[in-house]
Structure formats: structure tokens, C-alpha cells
Request: fold
Amino acid sequence: METKFVSARLLSPISISAERQSQFSESLDYIPGSTIRGALAQRYLDLYGKDDFFDEIFINEDSRFSNLLPSLSSTQSPRILPLTAMTCKNFPGFSDHGVVDNLWVLSAQKFSLNSSDPLNPEVFSRQSFCDTFGCGKDRITWLGYWNGDTENPSYIPVPKIEIMHTGIDRQTGTVAEKILYSVEAIDPFSKVSESSLYFNGHFRLTEKGWEKLDKTIKQSPILFLGRGKTRGQGEIELDLSPASLEQDHVWEEWNHACGRTLQEITKQNHNGTYFSITLLSDAIMVDKFLRYTTTMDLPFVGSQLLVSILKQGFAFGWNQVHRLPKEDEKTISRSSVFLFHYPGQIDEIMGSLLDMQTNGIGLRRNEGFGQILINDPFHNSFCGIKEGNS
Ligand SMILES: [Zn+2]
Reply:
């Protein structure tokens, strides 16, 4: 399998509805993996029809089409903010009143519930209220995207506009009088970067699959996605490049920092290994009886779930081949975070965790569901607790 970096330059306003048949006109602020996969599959069928390569690329269980996230350049590797990211209600942002991450503090809070030794309440109030310049306002959950650069973090705003549409009279098939409606869309121009907005992510395919998809994309890099495709909306230009290698060595550092922070706050000893799992895309998790669940099965025994901060939702899908809607499925939403503790050393579970990160979790992974990030550096960089300073 080979992973490539994918960048889609937005050429016209794009509007992707969150639900199959919605009376609401909001647009998603990213391109779901299933949407880009569906559009590429349709393009492929138009060009070549259904052949062996089609199954190799689009049906193969090991293929991955990640969500494409808003980006300010064709090379940026954007990240979604985890549900534990908090910022000042009045002056939100990395460069304003700052950002903190609550994951480790929430887990320390849990330890303190099981302990006779109560925790310093100041630690928690510092996470809940903004302490920059004595501001004192609430800290609120901060949703959205950032550039993934812990040294030089920046938020990626998604510019939205409203587009007016005319209603169509069903009987005559012509413009209906006095019927106008507006639809939310993403502006292809970013005022922050003063250039096009991009959507970036990754695809992973077999070598044979890449041979054909590479050719397909080079031959016709322009695709139309979402609402108003026939009116020229949702135009993107795809570009592929080699993916940069992931850095796994930082996990060890992450684990130590987490243990030390918990020790600082709780004044208890913390041995073993800590690791977090953040959902980069919605995940469809089922138990062995195929019932939807919000728990996560790990490929090794002995670890304990310390905290989970999660949201639930539904997955709506469209089967491009059969031209039929797919059954709605319950999901755990992207941005949800789980923190685990394993009593042994990190080396014992490193391989399994890497496999999990590469392959994802749950059902319909080849459509973009169930992509995860182990030990998101965001938790480490913005935990808000300085060592020796609790
Ligand atoms: Zn503030």
C-alpha cells in the first residue's frame, strides 16, 4: 500500500450538505472522504466503465480516502481541533487569549475522585476560566482546524458565503416566480492567505490502484462536488504528491509528559503508558453482535479507558454504483478523544497502536470512516500545566 498527499484547490464556491435530504442549507466545512471517493468513482466509471482496477481502487477494503480539511496552501497538513481544545470566549485564538487542552486535566480530575487527597481546585479553575491579562471570562470548546504546527500554531478559518438560488416549478420545469432561497457555501478565496482555499488530506491505495488513479487524476484533475454541480459550483482541482513520513518517536515523549503532568497535579505516582486516540473522521463502531457502540476495542489486553470526550452523530451515504441511499448509521463524531492507560511499557504496544493508526477503526473505513490519530501533539503542547508549577 502507498499513501499520497492530496491537495484540492477550490475553484468555485462549494456547498456540501451534512444530510441527504435536508431542509437546512448549511454546508460542511470540509470534504468528507466518502464524497471525494464517490466523485472519483463516478469519474472513473464515465472514463473507463467498471473494470478490475475499479474494484482495486474503490471497493478494496484496504483503500483509504481521508477527509480533506480546509488549508491555506497546497502543502499545509491541517488538523482538526480535538473536543478537548478550549479557548477564551471573548478573545478566542492561538495569538489572542490563547488555547488550552483539557484532556490530561480531566483525567487528573478522575484520579482525584478515587483518591482521599483532594486536588488543588486552582488547576481546574485555570482550565475553565481565561487567565490571560486577568481576563476571567469562560473558556469554551474551540471547534475547527489548525495548521498542525506546534511551534507556530495558527487557526484555519473557513470563509462562508450565501448563494441565492431560484426555485424551479415542478410542473413546468422553469424558474418559479417569487421563489428565491439561499444556500450556504464555502468561498474559494481565503482573505487570510489572500489566495485560493485548499482542502488537503491523504489517499492510500495498492500500487496497482495508484497506477490507474494517478493516470485518471492527471488526465482530468477537475471534479465537481456537492450542491449545484451542474451550475459550476463545487469545482476543485486535484493534485497528488508523495506523503511525508509520520513521526512515531514523539509518542514516547508524549507518554512521559502526560505521566509527569498527572503526577504534578495529583501528587500520585503514575507508571506505565498513557496514550490517546483522537478521531480524525467519524467512526462507525459495532460490538460483536453488530450493535452500535461508543466503546473502543483495543488489539491488546490490559489497558483501561481513563477519559472519553465524545459526540455522536449519524452517517448518511450514497451508493454510487447502485445509485441508492445507504442505511443511516450511528457514529462517534470526529474530534472525539479517548485517553487510555496501559500498565506495561510503550514498546509492548507500539506496533499494535501503529497498525491501528494506519488501518483505522470500525466499519466502512475504505469510505473515510474511522481514521484516528494516536497521541495528538495538541494535547502535549497545550496542556496548560507547566511542570513544577501546579
Ligand atoms: Zn480571555
